[in-house]
Design goal:
This is 2,3-diketo-5-methylthio-1-phosphopentane phosphatase. It holds the Pfam family HAD. Keywords: Hydrolase. It comes from Delitschia confertaspora ATCC 74209. The structure is a single chain. This protein is of the alpha/beta class and 276 residues long. The chain has one domain: Rossmann fold (3-Layer(aba) Sandwich), CATH 3.40.50. Helices cover 43% and strands 14% of the residues. It contains ten helices and seven strands. The protein has a seven-stranded mixed sheet, sandwiched between helices. Helix 2 packs antiparallel against helix 3, helix 4 runs parallel beside helix 6 and helix 5 runs parallel beside helix 9. The termini are far apart. The C terminus is likely disordered.
Length: 276
C-alpha cells in the first residue's frame, strides 16, 4: 500500500526527520490506562473488563466491540469523565524527559491511541503543559448521542476513527503512510505500546518497545514479532539516544532486547521450578 498523502501532508515529515517516535498513550505514556480506569471505577468493573481484554488478545472478540461495550457502561457526562481522569491519571515519570529530548533532537512524537482524543488532549494539558501541542495526537473521537448533549448522563458515545476495522482505530494505517515512503527519505520508525489496542501497530515499525508484563509482550511472543521490553521511558530514552547517536543499530537493539527478555524469562521459569 502506498502513502495516501503527499509527503508535505504528513505531519511528522515537516522537519525532514531521520527518526520518528510513534507511541500508544494509555498505560504507555501514562501509568494507568485511562479507559480501563474509567471502566473499573465508574463503568462495569474490573472483572468484566479484564475478561474482555483477554477475549480480544486471544482473538475471540474484536477490540472495537469490547471497547465499545466498556465505554457504553460509563454513564457520567463527558466533562465529568475528563475531570475524573485529570484528577487520577499519572504520567510515566520519565516521559517528560524523553519528550524534551525529542524536541531538541528533531524526533517528532506521534501519539496513536485506541482511546479518545479529547481525553488525551486534556491529560496532556494537565500533565505536560503547552508543549504537548508539539505532538500529533491521532485517536478516536466522541460525539453526543441523538437527542442529548455531552453534558448529560449517558449523553456521549465513542466515534471510531475506522469503524469498519475490528481495531476501531487501525494504527497501521498511519504507520504505513510513513513506512511506504521512498527509502532515501523514509525515517526510522519507533513504536511503544503495552496492550490490545497496539496489536495493529506491532508489525509495522522498525523497533517495537513493548511494556514489561503487559498483553503486547504476550502477543509478540506468540506471533514471533521482534520487540524489546521497557519498564519505563528511561530505558526507551537510553535506547533511542544510542540509535540516534549511531552507537547501536535498530537491528542490534531489537536483538539485544529480545535476548534480554528470553534470559529473564528463562531465569523466572527456573526460579519458579526451584520454589516448587
Amino acid at each position: 500500500m502506498g502513502s495516501t498523502l503527499a509527503i508535505s501532508d504528513l505531519w511528522a515529515m515537516k522537519t525532514n526527520p531521520k527518526f520518528i517516535f510513534f507511541t500508544d498513550f494509555d498505560g504507555t505514556i501514562t501509568l494507568q490506562d485511562s479507559n480501563d480506569y474509567m471502566t473499573d471505577n465508574i463503568g462495569y468493573g474490573p472483572e468484566k473488563r479484564k475478561q474482555a481484554n483477554r477475549d480480544t488478545l486471544e482473538g475471540r472478540v474484536a477490540f472495537r466491540d469490547t471497547f465499545q461495550d466498556m465505554m457504553d457502561s460509563i454513564t457520567l457526562p463527558y466533562p465529568e469523565c475528563i475531570q475524573f481522569l485529570v484528577d487520577h491519571i499519572q504520567l510515566d515519570p520519565h516521559f517528560k524527559e524523553f519528550f524534551e529530548w525529542s524536541l531538541q533532537n528533531n524526533v517528532p512524537v506521534v501519539v496513536l491511541s485506541g482511546g479518545m482524543e479529547p481525553i488525551i488532549e486534556a491529560l496532556f494539558e494537565a500533565l505536560i503543559g503547552p508543549d504537548a501541542k508539539k505532538m500529533q495526537i491521532i485517536g478516536n473521537r466522541v460525539r453526543a448521542r441523538p437527542g442529548k448533549t455531552l453534558e448529560e448522563d449517558r449523553g456521549w458515545v465513542i466515534e471510531f476513527r475506522h469503524p469498519e476495522s475490528g481495531h476501531g482505530h487501525d494504527k497501521s494505517v498511519a504507520l504505513r503512510q510513513y513506512s511506504s515512503l521512498p527509502e532515501d527519505i523514509r525515517p526510522t520508525m519507533f513504536y511503544a505500546g503495552d496492550g490490545v489496542s497496539d496489536l495493529s501497530a506491532a508489525k509495522e515499525t522498525d523497533l517495537l518497545f513493548a511494556k514489561k508484563g503487559k498483553d503486547l509482550v504476550s502477543y509478540c511472543v506468540r506471533e514471533n514479532v521482534p520487540f524489546t521490553v521497557f519498564e519505563d521511558w528511561s530505558s526507551i530514552l537510553a535506547t533511542t539516544k544510542d540509535i540516534v547517536n549511531g552507537k547501536i543499530s535498530v537491528q542490534d537493539a531489537a536483538r539485544q532486547g529480545h535476548e534480554a527478555f528470553m534470559v529473564g524469562k528463562t531465569s523466572l521459569e527456573h526460579e519458579t521450578k526451584t520454589v516448587k
